[in-house]
TrEMBL record:
SUPFAM superfamilies from the UniProt entry: Putative DNA-binding domain
Single GO BP term: regulation of DNA-templated transcription
Pfam family, one: MerR_1
Gene Ontology molecular function, alphabetical: DNA binding
Protein name, per record: MerR family transcriptional regulator
UniProt domain HTH merR-type: residue ranges: 22-92
Amino acid sequence: MDAEVDLISIPPDEELYKKQYYSISIVAKWFRVNNSLLRFWENEFKILKPKKNKKGDRFFRPEDVKNLQIIYYLLRQKKLTISGAIKHLKAHKENTEVNLQIIHSLNNFKSFLLELKTNTEK
């Protein structure tokens, strides 16, 4: 599970909220998934509402990226099915957001401690 957490590379909130929209290709790179998977998740999960231009290109708001983090967590880390993740979001969205924030904080703290350990061993 720790290995999968490290796979996604979403910028910190301060940086994420500097822009209003991100293209689907950038967001897909952050999550290391195909654009088609993001489009599929958009159709399945009502909380994803990327803006589309006249051409049909999708642009994700920072809120959409945060919702994608929750979806990724439920599907890839908790190994829920799509229908299970949808039910979970309906019943426990706020708790899941809090849990995800705690997991990220703990992972950041773990990285800090590992870096500290590496620096003190030199």
